[in-house]
Amino acid sequence: MVETPVSLSEELLPAERRQQLIQWFQTNVSGTNQELARMFNISVSTVRRDLDSLAAEGIVRRTHGGAVRIRSRTNFEPSTDLARRTAIEEKNSIVRHTLQMIEPKQSIIIDSGAVIAHMLAEELSVQSIPLTVITNDLYVATTLAYKEHIKLIVPGGSCRFGSYGLLGQPGLDFLVDIRCDCFFMSAQALDLECASETLLDVMLMKRAMIEAAERTVLMLDSSRFFDRALYRTVPTETFDTIITDEGLSEEAIEKLRLRGINLEIAKL
């Protein structure tokens, strides 16, 4: 996060203070309550109230410890470093919930390019659950390598710059002959219509993994809901289960469940 010098105080009118927060979020994607309070020289309770107001206006989306800017461009993709600092408690709760769905001796696919997939791999590496794991993510593969309880399979491909994901035809060809139990997937964005991605190659790989699995579970923190990226992956109804955190409003939950979507809320 860029700590832009700011001049805010409790003495400003709430509308003036929130306008300066809006300007800050135009150049910064996310911030925690504590970081914003320090940078703007205001109390954490004031930050929370201001962020709640901005969230009500649709400018930011609240996370457990702060807020993230609502994306205005369909090709926006946060860096891995930024994603590791955004909605951490929410992602942890989703991973804990997901672990309860994994059974011994299953064959599973773990998605690439997502911090939440990396966190799931880290948890599985210290568990004793015997699994066959297929992944095109080098971080996931490295985390699960040399684990006696894990049979690891890594499809081929070219490593995408700035990411751990292997993409391309070798992996797509390999997945044609795979029939596994479950695919644990991430996404750049999800709305009532579909999940979507910023890159064509990533979208094609996810489609191939969905075809290779009997069930697909989408792990997605609430900041990525009701947004869209450039490439449509699959309809939202495709997912057997969607796991998210408590950040979704009751209205949003109701909209999704009215579409027949099996939505599970992970408790913080």
UniProtKB/TrEMBL annotation:
Domain HTH deoR-type per the UniProt entry, residue ranges: 14-69
PROSITE patterns: HTH_DEOR_2 (PS51000)
Sorted UniProt keywords: Transcription, Transcription regulation
Sample GO molecular function, one term: DNA-binding transcription factor activity
Pfam hit, one: HTH_DeoR
Protein name, per record: Transcriptional regulator, DeoR family
Organism encoding this protein: Cohaesibacter marisflavi
